[in-house]
Amino acid sequence: MASEFQRTKLQDMFNAFDVNGDGCLEEEDFAALASRWSRLPRVRADAELAARVEDVLLGWWQHLSSAVDSDNDGRIDMNDLLAMVDRLPSMRETVAATADTVFDAVDANGDGRISRGEHQQLIDLWHGRGVTTGDVFDRLDQDADGHLSRPEFTVLWTQFWISDDPAEPGNYLCGPVAGRSFR
Questions:
Q1: 58 vs 52: CA distance, rounded Å
Q2: Residue 110: exposed, middle, or buried by beta-carbon count in 10 A (0-12, 13-18, 19+)?
Q3: Does the pLDDT at position 114 exceed 80?
Q4: pLDDT tens figures, 134-163
Q5: Is the pLDDT of residue 181 over 70?
Q6: Does the pLDDT of residue 116 top 90, yes or no?
Q7: Which of 4, 12, 38, 139 has the fewest C-beta atoms under 10 angstroms from its C-beta?
């Protein structure tokens, strides 16, 4: 069963995905998310990357709906999402595989690293609005080189979706978690 920390961590994401604010996620919400992502410079300029981004985002919907939409009404509430979170530890490789597409989409200049500004763009894009992040990037950048490499990002991405340990930095990859600070 998902913990209170996981619920808190994912609630902002759920709210950002729920475009019409009806308390449920539907396929249209994921299509709207894909549309937001399509505005990223690299995604806009690269048809192959655009197709990968769309496949990942709509694939999340397909997987989520087939796994937890038990009444087949095409609607997923927060409790359904948290039920999926319980399954993610057994899907570590699948979760990590989506990190590559997200990384490529966010790496605006294609240098193989995500800068502080590119990370901020990731957070703002996920939330659908500007988000004040404070020192989140500094906490994520464990080697303090000013960038997140692909391997670093993959670890953080996997922690975000799977971890229940507030001390793991990846839990904050998509921004601050309400009521939590780093230890």
A1: 10
A2: exposed
A3: yes
A4: 889 999 999 999 999 999 999 999 999 888
A5: no
A6: yes
A7: 4
CATH number of the domain at 4-172, out of 3.30.530.20, 1.10.238.10, 3.20.70.20, 3.40.30.10? 1.10.238.10
Judging by beta carbons within 10 Å of its beta carbon (0-12, 13-18, 19+), is residue 175 exposed, middle or buried?
buried
* Distance (Å, whole) CA 98 – CA 129: 23
E strand intervals along 53-143: 113-115
Alpha-carbon distance of 13 to 108, in angstroms, equals 22
| Closest CA relative to residue 14, chosen from 59, 56, 54, 60 | 60
- For the record, the structure tokens of 107 come out as 């790496």
CA-closest candidate to residue 173, choices 112, 104, 103 = 103
pLDDT score for 183: 43
Is pLDDT at 98 greater than 80 in this prediction?
yes
Strands in the chain per DSSP E: 113-115, 147-149
pLDDT at residue 180 in the model: 55
Please give the structure tokens belonging to residue 117.
């500004």
Q: Where are the alpha helices (DSSP H) in the chain?
A: 4-17, 27-37, 41-45, 47-68, 78-87, 92-106, 116-127, 136-140, 150-162
Task: Compute the distance between CA of residue 125 and CA of residue 65 in angstroms, rounded to an integer.
Answer: 23
Question: Which phi and psi (to 5°) does residue 49 adopt?
Answer: -65, -40
pLDDT value at 179 more than 80? no
